[in-house]
Amino acid sequence: MERPIKRKHAPYNSFVLFKLKTGECCWDAVRRTCAAKSSSTAGFEPARAKPNRFQVCLLNHSDISTLRLHSEKVYEKPIIVADREMVEEKADDMLLEAQVSDVAFLVVGDPFGATTHSDLVVRAKKLGVDVKVVHNASVMNAIGVCGLQLYRYGETVSIPFFTDTWRPDSFYEKIKRNRTLGLHTLCLLDIRVKEPSLESLCRGKKVYEPPKFMTINTAIEQLLEVEQNHQESVYSEDTTCVGLARVGSEDQVIIAGSMKQLLTLDFGPPLHCLVIVGDTHPLEEEMLEFYTIDKTSKRT
């Protein structure tokens, strides 16, 4: 077995992968973690005394405005907003910094929900950098708020934006397998932040498109289009689904109904996700009853 590389830097230097709580700002996340006295976070205590040796990067893969960033400083240090391009192409700079100072990398979603994040951890460990991970809730478990039991979910799928020339449907077979087994399917909807346009890439000069977040309505339209193409009756416009928006925030929205019904609703600002309901337990049915369109309309 390969021995870990010994590092010669100060013992408090580390690379920490934070998971933000749903609806939490990065300021609160760092203060919460630094205040903790457990061995996993004790390494951040020197950050109070040495603010110049503490760097915070916030991953901007989604709408960070919902995280209520009320300051650009954490322990009197600016927050570096790290877009996808920086993380994927300039990760070496971040890891080199972690060899001489503490670096906190905050992500929206599970710390290991993206292959890129796992790659960062592997590379940091190979450099002998101490790596700590701070876990928290993500949509993968917060989705339980709709009343469907977590252990009755099958494989999670991602629904990408269709274009005129690219209309992938690999998610269809996964949904089919889940529904054959009677399992629910969580559909994560596409987000496009700081994505270069195809035209600009062809010209050799990147021009970024405006941020774009898939709505539940668009997801359902695309799902029904794919079903129409396959004609395997995996689901239909009458299939029961749950639409969720801004899960974990004060203004979260949860509505259950058929695809046809949800297609007509406005779920408001991002982020959105969709659950295609499988076979249900009586308790799940009782919970879903609170979120059906008829019940929610009576409460509003």
From TrEMBL:
GO terms for molecular function: diphthine methyl ester synthase activity. Keywords: Methyltransferase, S-adenosyl-L-methionine, Transferase. Gene3D superfamilies: Cobalt-precorrin-4 Transmethylase, Domain 1 (3.40.1010.10), Methyltransferase, Cobalt-precorrin-4 Transmethylase, Domain 2 (3.30.950.10). One of its GO terms (biological process) is protein histidyl modification to diphthamide. Pathway: Protein modification; peptidyl-diphthamide biosynthesis. It comes from the Eukaryota. Pfam families: TP_methylase (PF00590). It catalyses: 2-[(3S)-amino-3-carboxypropyl]-L-histidyl-[translation elongation factor 2] + 4 S-adenosyl-L-methionine = diphthine methyl ester-[translation elongation factor 2] + 4 S-adenosyl-L-homocysteine + 3 H(+). Residues 83-262 form the Tetrapyrrole methylase domain. The keyword Manganese does not apply. The keyword DNA repair does not apply. Belongs to the diphthine synthase family. S-adenosyl-L-methionine-dependent methyltransferase that catalyzes four methylations of the modified target histidine residue in translation elongation factor 2 (EF-2), to form an intermediate called diphthine methyl ester. The four successive methylation reactions represent the second step of diphthamide biosynthesis. This is diphthine methyl ester synthase. It comes from Sesamum radiatum. The lineage of its organism: Eukaryota, Viridiplantae, Streptophyta, Embryophyta, Tracheophyta.
